[in-house]
Amino acid sequence: MKSKFSIASVLAASVVAGALTVASAPAVSKDIVLNMAGPDWGPTRFLQEYFNKTYKAKSGNNVKLVFDFIPWPSFYDRVAASLTSGEKKYQMIISDSQWIGTFIEGGHFMKLNKYIDADPELQAIMKDIHPAMTENYSTYPHKSKNYYGFPQFPDTKVTWFRNDLFCHEGERADFKAKFDQVLPCSYDEWKNTDWDVWANVGKFFRRDKGAKLGDGVAENDFYGVAYQAGKVGDFSSMQILAFIWQHGGDIWDEANAPNAQAEGVVNSAAAVEGFQHYLDILKYAPPVHKTGQMGIFAIQELFMQGKVAAIIDWAGVAPPALDPKVSKYADKTGFAMTPGLRKSDGSIDRTDNIGGQPFVLTTWNSEEVTKEALEVVKWWMSKDVQIEFSKNGGEPGLMSVMNMPEYNDFLPWNRAHAELLQYQKDVWHTPEMFEMLTQQQEEFDKAITGQKTAKEAMDAIAKFQQELLVEVGKIK
Fold it and tell me: Which domains, and CATH codes, for the chain?
């Protein structure tokens, strides 16, 4: 999620400009309706509400924003159907970063370089956007200097944990005695947590129903850790790729096409080792992982219902964990950096897959509509609006906001999110992404559910990608 939605992701703005012209007036004010399609969740709901409350067009036009809120499960299909139908319904779209190549190649997303080059405000915004977001949300071909989008909702995975367990003196003493390691409680202790400690947390907090747990007893069978292991969407890939990258493996590098290869890279020894490491720790998760259905919402629910001590999930789906109406441990939940692989020099590699979504403009916009849409972009990316978004469950795209001393206090996961941005990479942006992801998810699921070994799955993925990319001319 990017699902990440990926959480865990598409913001679309469609501008239907109806002009009411008064012939006798020296200055013409127009009624302009911006119809935006976006996923139906907090970040887009906030955008709609805050726009209605505060936005005034500098042009003097009467600009109205109307969202087409689409449920996440059908979001891509609905947007893709609209774009390919030729109906030209939307003038802006919130697009998962991986989708942009498909829709750029299809002629739907507008290249923005000439507008950025001509507008000092947009240039200043681009300089203030974190480099990980510029590279992964804006560029096509990936990592080029062709810009198509701006961050609407940046996202990273963070650790969610039970304060009442990890900071419990008795549990900490028992963990130290058993593993000669510190059970992480403070932010700095979590910052020093690697996968070895995470695996031991999984072993340590496995308790049968009725067993002692913290100051009470386990109400149900209790588990130590969980992370994504879901066949749907990109769920498994978003976690597995972190392990692969940290172990020195890689994915097919589209930035070096057509010379970059899939076979020998995707199924390298390092990549197989990373995937195996993921599988080795997965066994400490709740048994639902064996079904291949442990996606981002499943682990969110497991945590909020008090069935697991710690999870790795997107910050974008974290707000409900603090809501006592839906989370049993809302007042006992903490957030921290994700674990990573300890290197020989003692540092921890936390390379991971970025989540979140950019928003883009469509190619059929008139110059007038494009101007108004870019004014909305500039409003959204202004520091004051980004601060308000950050205080209301969102994450900013601007480094100037993340560098504010008070930023860490806006939301309990903010410090971790900001510090993790330096480690973020992304999967492919090429139009073949969907075929590659679907097959990769199927192969990962076969290993997760015990039908294949890690090596067999990685070999199958590499072979499929090599054949596909050779066929379309992206590998020589």
Answer: 14-154+356-425 (3.40.190.10), 158-352 (3.40.190.10)
Residue 4: beta bridge partners? 6
Q: What is the pTM assigned to this prediction?
A: 0.91
229-230 and 348-349: which strand pairing? unpaired
Cα separations (Å) of 260 from 140, 142, 144, 413, 473? 17, 14, 16, 37, 12
| Residues β-bridged to residue 150 | 359
Per-residue pLDDT tens over the stretch 427-470: 999 999 999 999 999 999 999 999 999 999 999 999 999 999 99
In contact, 421 and 396? CB cutoff 8 Å:
no
DSSP labels, 71-118: -HHHHHHHHHHHHHHT----SEEE--GGGHHHHHHTT-BPP-HHHHHT
Q: Is 453 exposed, middle or buried (0-12, 13-18, 19+ CB in 10 A)?
A: middle
Across the strands, what pairs with 445? Answer: none
Our separate counts of H helices and E strands in the chain read: 20, 18
Calpha distance 142→114 (Å, rounded)? 19
pLDDT per residue as tens digits for the range 119-167: 999 999 999 999 999 999 999 998 899 999 999 999 999 999 999 999 9
Fill in the amino acid letter for 157: K
Pair 38, 94: CB distance under 8 Å: yes
Per-residue pLDDT band for 19 (boundaries 50, 70, 90) equals very low
Mean pLDDT of the chain: 93
**140, two tokens:** 């096509």
Residues 304 and 329: beta-carbon distance below 8 Å: yes
With a CB cutoff of 8 Å and minimum separation 6, the contacts of 195 are 277, 281, 339, 340, 341, 342
Among 422, 375, 421, CA closest to 125: 375
Q: Which residues contact 87 (CB under 8 A, 6 or more apart)?
A: none
Q: Give the Å distances, CA to CA, from 324 to 207, 319, 328, 330, 362.
A: 24, 11, 6, 5, 41
